[in-house]
């Protein structure tokens, strides 16, 4: 919903938000494949001081990266106003492509209100950019419970121009969820998306549907007792460790695991060989391990957790215990080989 009027020279800033695990990054990757976003800057804002999403947007650098088609990706490292100003300066000085619009992917716990207000009240930004479309993802599996539990999710829907209902290939959207979303924001466009079906035209999704007006109230709230942390391993995990770890997390944390997203390094069949995969979960829903094809990534396992409650030490110990159990099993199994035993070390 617009809070300022764009001029012929100002650039639209679109907001892509949605609660943790609702499919924002997946949607962003699909949008970046379209011609509409060929000439765009992308800002990835991640929860806390830990980031992994910028590794999963097809290409990445520490701050700016030119994506296929000319997009520029920037992982936020501080104040959003400074990040936007740095992007605009880089554009004007030729240090990055002449993008025609900006797309901000927010953290899953973000209230879009401060971003909307920032674009309207910051003197420098108001001169160069204006609010475009606000897209919000709501997943069909967890959406109803999320809207009932987390104030952030409700606020996101309230400020949406378009609500994209995701994961309907895992579970059809319930009438209760649709009614709840429409009750929160009856003016929003409601679109169902699946991984198999083509997206609506990107230029239609990013169409300015708002009415210029005064900035929104700055009041917003966050759910308490949420912890973010990263689990790292420099040595590859044995293939058997990953499914056991996933099963244990689902049993022990359940819906308190708000999001798990990251890269796992797994030992291959040949001695010394490894491969990487992407692990992703939201609440009790775990997605199959997906291929990670960024050949520039040279790191080990990096898993970013966002959990309700304090669980960092427990998760670290759980992974160590499972890795040790797998190693012990292979050590005393008569068919275990030296290569397999070495690959289980973490």
What is the topology?
Layout: E1 11-18, H1 24-32, E2 40-44, E3 64-66, E4 72-75, H2 80-92, E5 101-105, H3 113-121, H4 123-128, E6 129-139, H5 143-149, H6 151-158, E7 162-166, H7 175-184, E8 189-192, H8 202-205, E9 226-233, H9 241-252, E10 257-267, E11 274-282, E12 285-286, E13 290-291, E14 301-308, H10 312-332, H11 338-343
Parallel strand pairs: 1-5, 1-6, 2-4, 2-5, 6-7, 7-8
Antiparallel strand pairs: 3-4, 9-14, 10-11, 10-14, 11-12, 11-13
Description of the structure:
The strands form two sheets. Strands 3-4-2-5-1-6-7-8 form an eight-stranded mixed beta sheet, sandwiched between helices. The chain folds into two domains: about 10-205, 3-Layer(aba) Sandwich (Rossmann fold); about 225-345, CobW-like, C-terminal domain (Hypothetical Protein Yjia, Chain: A,domain 2, 2-Layer Sandwich), CATH 3.30.1220. The chain has eleven helices and 14 strands. The longest helix is centred in the C-terminal third of the chain and has 21 residues, at about 310-330. Strand 7 (about 160-165), helix 7 and strand 8 form a beta-alpha-beta unit. The chain has about 350 residues and is α/β, with parallel strands linked by helices.
């Amino acid at each position: 919903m617009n809070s300022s009027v764009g001029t012929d020279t100002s650039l639209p800033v679109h907001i892509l938000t949605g609660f943790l695990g609702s499919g924002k990054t997946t949607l962003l990757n699909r949008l970046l494949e379209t011609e509409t976003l060929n000439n765009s800057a992308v800002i990835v804002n991640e929860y806390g001081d830990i980031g992994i999403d910028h590794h999963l947007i097809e290409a990445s650098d520490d701050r700016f990266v030119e994506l296929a088609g000319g997009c520029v990706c920037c992982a936020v490292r501080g104040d959003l106003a400074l990040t936007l100003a740095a992007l605009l300066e880089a554009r004007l000085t030729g240090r990055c492509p002449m993008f025609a619009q900006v797309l901000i992917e927010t953290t899953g716990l973000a209230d879009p209100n401060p971003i909307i207000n920032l674009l309207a009240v910051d003197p420098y930004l108001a001169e160069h950019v204006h609010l475009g479309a606000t897209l919000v993802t709501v997943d069909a599996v967890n959406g109803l419970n999320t809207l009932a539990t987390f104030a952030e999710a409700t606020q996101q829907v309230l400020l949406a121009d378009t609500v994209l209902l995701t994961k309907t290939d895992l579970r059809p959207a319930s009438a209760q969820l649709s009614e709840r979303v429409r009750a929160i924001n009856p003016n929003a466009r409601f679109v169902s998306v699946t991984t198999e079906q083509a997206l609506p035209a990107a230029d239609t999704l990013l169409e300015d549907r708002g009415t210029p007006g005064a900035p929104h109230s700055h009041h917003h709230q966050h759910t308490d007792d949420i912890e973010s942390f990263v689990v790292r391993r420099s040595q590859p995990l044995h293939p058997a460790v990953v499914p056991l770890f996933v099963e244990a997390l689902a049993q022990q944390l359940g819906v308190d695991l708000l999001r798990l997203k990251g890269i796992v390094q797994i030992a291959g069949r040949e001695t010394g060989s490894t491969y990487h995969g992407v692990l992703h979960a939201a609440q009790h829903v775990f997605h199959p391990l997906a291929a990670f094809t960024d050949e520039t990534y040279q790191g080990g396992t990096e898993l970013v957790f966002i959990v309700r409650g304090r669980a960092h030490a427990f998760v670290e110990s759980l992974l160590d215990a499972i890795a040790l159990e797998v190693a012990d099993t292979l050590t005393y199994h008569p068919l275990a080989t030296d290569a397999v035993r070495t690959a289980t070390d973490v």
